[in-house]
Each structure stands twice: as structure tokens, then as C-alpha cells.
Amino acid sequence: MSTNTLYISYLRKRSAASAGLLFLILIMGCKAPMIDENLPVDESIRLNQLGFYPNQQKLAVVLNHEDGEDFVIWDTAGKSIVFEGKLSSSVKKTFSGSNTRIADFSTFSEIGKYILVLNGVGKSYPFEIKPQVNQELGKASIKAFYYQRASLDLEENYAGIWSRPMGHPDDQVMIHPSAISASRKSGEVLSSPKGWYDAGDYNKYVVNSGITVGTLLSLYEDYPNYFEKLELNIPESGDQVPDLLDEIRWNLEWMITMQDPTDGGVYHKLTTAKFEGMVEPHLAVSQRYFVAKSTTATLDFAAVMAQASRIYKAYFPEESVMYLKAAEKAWSWAKENPDVLYKQNELNEAFDPDVVTGAYGDNSTSDEWIWAASELFITTHNLTYWEELANADQSFNLPSWNQVAWLGYYSLLRHQDHITLLPQEWVAMLKINLLSAAREQIEGTVGTAFNTPIETNSKNFVWGSNAVAANQGILLIYAFKQSNERIFLERALDNLDYILGRNATGYSYVTGFGTKSPLHPHHRLATSRPDLPPLPGFIVGGPNPRQQDGCNYTSSFPDESYTDESCSYASNEIAINWNAPFAYLANSLEAINQ
Q1: What is the structure's pLDDT at 438?
Q2: 203-216: b (≥16 Cβ within 10 Å) or e
Q3: Mapping DSSP to helix (H, G, I), strand (E, B) and coil, where does residue 272 land?
Q4: Coil vs helix vs strand at 234
Q5: CB 522 within 8 A of CB 573
Q6: Pairing mode, strands 204-205 and 267-272
Q7: Strand order from edge to edge, sheet including 99-104
Q8: What does DSSP assign to residue 202?
Q9: Distance (Å, whole) CA 569 – CA 556
Q10: Of 75, 316, 420, 474, which has the fewest CB atoms closer than 10 Å, so is most exposed?
Q11: pLDDT tens digits for range 138-186
Q12: Radius of gyration for the alpha carbons in the chain, expressed in angstroms and rounded
């Protein structure tokens, strides 16, 4: 289509549009029309609000517009149209019944800052095309953990406007009656500092720290060269240790205090009896407790410590030895106590005070045994741990805090070339299951309204659905690395596009990134400081049609069930186990695209 034809088309369409919308001014002697950059944002245009790598697929999804309508890409710096196209003729339906069409500008790859302008109606949010387009996003996704640190003053040099006094020194933590042992009595006070606040609340939970730390350690193991150079501006920056490992170590140093050194069992959580109010951390001063040992927490701990032992050996050799001893001792306790499940309601019937904070209860330990055995086997090559794996279930389950087997299997695939004791047939079956799950995950993607893997099944929209999208992305990246089939990488990028705005709500679900991003997350660190924007780099939970929090939602459809309100812990809370897979996705894509 010629520029003049496009111009005439726009003028015709504008004649039917309300005044003040998009118009083009053809200046005499110029080769290209001009666009009014003050025209309104059209909320029907959904795209990644950060941008794209030059060589990646570039799609916008447009709701409820006609077939063949024209769109252009406008260079906001050069003040010119740089790409012209038409919406796709095919119509796809959202879960709520809206029509969608695709604006595909994948063939355009020039570096710059742009908006997409649609048919005399409006413009998209701005986006960029450039190498390293996700680098700042990836850094922020890890720096978010620094903002979650307990037992530390956050100084302005590192935290900027979000600096704050230390909260929760945790040097006076009490043994809850559920946590007594031969060596520790009810009411005894011990120290358990550091660690990360778990989510929007100020408690610290071993189970959720387990999958979080395991995911971040795996991120480092998969891309060590990338993280050798990545600076996060945290207090430890410049100490010759990768900043990612420094940040993880803050939580490891807390986790190690959650083990009873006498028997090796690990407390399920460190928590107040009830959730604190929406106050700053230094004002949240209720008594905190070590609560009940559990097999799941102990095995998660064993897995993390075994993985940490091999990674930190080059930087902190004495700690490496300590981590491995702690892992082995935890394994031994779990062997002697294989079915100690955390059942909060039963504990509350037996002990006071009642504890009503996050339960992280799990009725099965089979996946935790696989994860712990995998990490211990990789680190020690001890066949005792292989015995746990030889006949284990290899079927794929997307990782979550209560389904961690594939954290171990990912690690085994990562180290397969260095473990001669691994039977090749067993590894081959693991790869088959991985690739089969990845192919199943992407099947039907192009038939979805937003062209993303998460939209292929309404059941993906659960509490923490954005973490489902991120963990799907991790699966697809592992499939890409095992097969070298680029389709898996493209689909991982699709889910990142989903997270950053190509979705049914039009939100970029990451605080501080994108034009339309959450302003009121369920996050005590944010809600207690209403004078500040939300802390950056946190992914919120995302659409959740069960809407357990009782807040007001504008829609009950699966991918629209989101509200940017601080009351919405069901859709708008932050959590470390959600940020970890998001950090993996954003940073691994950066590392791959270097």
C-alpha cells in the first residue's frame, strides 16, 4: 500500500470517527505523513509494553476491530511512519467473547522507540525494539528480592526512595509448642535473622523459600557467565561474587537457622500467629515463632542446601561444606520421619497460640523426595540418592511450591554430561517427557485470542497465574536447549509478551515496567508507604477467577479476573515464588539473546 493510499484510507475512516482522534497531516514536499502524537491511547490494542528483540516475532492483538483495518508503526523519535500493515482476517474469541485480530510487524527490526497507530482511532502504549530489551527488567526482577530483605536497614544508596529502617531482626524468635524437641522447649527464644519476606506479608516460610531459591540457583547454574557480569546495586556489589549469588545467600543464611542442629529436622515456617497489619516492617513487632517441623520443608531444605553446596564452593568453601552437611542431616531426618505433614488446623486444635498465616500444606512428599535426591546425587554422586530416583515417576508436572520434582529433573538434565552414573535410557525418557510436555504446552497457541501458551487452557488461571506463565516459559526454554527447536523459544517469548501487556486486561503485570502496570499491589511494603510508587520489579499474581479475597472485580472470566487493588491478595499480591520463575524467564531470554 502506498503512503498516499494509506493517507486517504485514514481520512475516510476519520470522517466517521469522533473529533480529536487520530489524524494525518500530509505536508507538501514531505515523503511521509505526520501523526498527531497527542491522539488517545486505544485500550483495544494489546502488546508488550516494554518491547522486542530485533529478530523476534512482534505481535499486537486488537480487540473488536474490522478485518483488514490499517495500522502503522510510528517512530516517535524520527517522527515518521516506518511500517504499514493490515490486521489479520482471522477472528479469534477471548474467554469473554470479544473478537481479536493480530497486527503482525515481525518483519520490522529497526532499533528505536515506537507506537502502533490504528485506523483513525488511537495509538498503543509505547514500546522499543532493541537488543537487550529485557535487561533492566531482568535486573529489577532480582533486585526485588533485596527489597524483601528482613533484618536489614535498606539504605538510600541501594534502595533509593524505597529506603527504610530495618524490620524483624528475628533475634527473639520463640519455639511454638508444635515445634518442641528433646533439645528445644516451648517458649525458648532463639535467633533466626535475615531471609526474605515471603510475599505481601512479613513471614518467612521454608517451603516457599525452597522453590524460590532452587529456581534462582538453577538460573545461575544455567547462565553463570551472564551473571558474572550482572550488577544489581546491592550492598554486596563489587565483592567478587556474582550479585545474584549474594542476594540468594541472604536467604540461605536464614534457611540454615531453620534446621534443628540436634536432629536435622527443619521447621516449616517462622511467623507471627496472625498476619500483621498493613504497616511498615519496623512497626510490625508481634511475637514470631518457629512452627512445627515437616517432611516437606526438610526435603526442600535438603535440596536447596545440596544445590547451594556445589555452587558456592568456589566462593565460600567453608559454607559449601556446611550446606552439604546440613542437606545430608536433613535427608536423614526425613528418612526417619517420612510422613510428617504440616496440617495447620490439626496443630491449632492441639496447641496455642493458633497460627493462621500461610500454611503451605502438602499432602504428598513424593515430589520433594525426587528433588532432594536429585540435588544430593548431583553434588555427591552417592548412589544412595540414585536409589530414590531409579524408579521414580518421570511424568512432567509444571513446578509450583507443592510440585517440585521437575526442579530436580531440570538439574539432572543440566548436569547429565558430568554424571557417568546416570543410565542413558533413564535420561532419554526424561528428555522425551520434557519435550512431549513442551509440545503439548504450545499446541493450540496460535488458536488463542492472545497467541500465548497460557491462554490454551482456562485452568491455567489460578492463584498466581502469572507464575504459571513464567514456569511454562522455563519449560519451553529447557525444551529449546534440549532440542534447539526455535519454536519453543518463540513461545516462551509469547508468554513474556503476555505478562507485559498482550493479555485480556491490558496490564503489564510487573510493577514499574510498562505504561499500564499495577499501582496498588497487595504488598505491605508498598501499601504502608502510599506516598511512594510501588517497589519495582515485582510480578503480581494475575487473573484468578476464584477471587477468594472478596474485592470488587469487573469480570469473572478466567483471564480478566484481575483487579489492581491492595485488597486483592487473590490477584494482586506479590510473592517470592512468583518472582523467581519470572526472573528466570526474563534473565534467561536476555542471556540467550546476548
Answers
A1: 98
A2: bbbbbbbbbbbbbb
A3: strand
A4: coil
A5: yes
A6: antiparallel
A7: 45-46, 59-63, 99-104, 92-93
A8: S
A9: 16
A10: 420
A11: 999 999 999 999 999 999 999 999 999 999 999 999 999 999 999 999 9
A12: 25
Percent of the chain topping pLDDT 70: 94
pLDDT, residue 33, reads 60
Sole residue written with cell 502524537: 37
> Which residues partner with 174 through β-bridges?
189, 289
Instruction: State the Cα–Cα distance between residues 456 and 265, nearest whole angstrom.
Output: 41
d(CA 427, CA 432) in angstroms, rounded, equals: 9
Other C-beta atoms closer than 10 Å to the C-beta of 484 total: 9
CA angle 169, 174, 180 (to 5 degrees): 140
In the chain, what is the straight-line distance between the N-terminal and C-terminal CA atoms, in Å?
A: 36
**Torsion angle of alpha carbons 284, 288, 293, 299, nearest 10°?**
40
State how far the Cα of 561 lies from the Cα of 445, in Å rounded to an integer. Answer: 21
CA–CA distance, 190 with 171 (Å, rounded to integer): 6
Give percent of the chain above pLDDT 90.
91
Q: Which residue has the higher pLDDT, 15 or 338?
A: 338
Please state whether the peptide bond connecting residue 169 to the residue before it is cis, i.e. omega within 30 degrees of 0: no
Mean pLDDT across 255-266 = 98
Q: Cell 568456589 identifies what position? A: 314
The per-residue pLDDT for 6 is 33
Q: CA-based angle 351:356:361, to the nearest 5?
A: 90
Cell readout for 538 is 515485582
Residue carrying C-alpha cell 491478595: 569
- Do residues 85 and 105 touch, judged by C-beta distance below 8 A? yes
Tally of residues, the chain? 594
Check residue 386 and give its pLDDT: 97
pTM tops 0.90? yes
DSSP 456-522: G-GGG-STTHHHHHHHHHHHHHHHHHHH--HHHHHHHHHHHHHHTT-SSS----BTTSSSS--SS-B
pLDDT at 256: 98
Span 122-138, pLDDT tens digits: 999 999 999 999 999 99
Q: Which residues are catalytic?
A: 201, 522, 564, 573
From residue 319, give the alpha-carbon distance in Å to each of 48, 315, 519.
Answer: 42, 9, 40
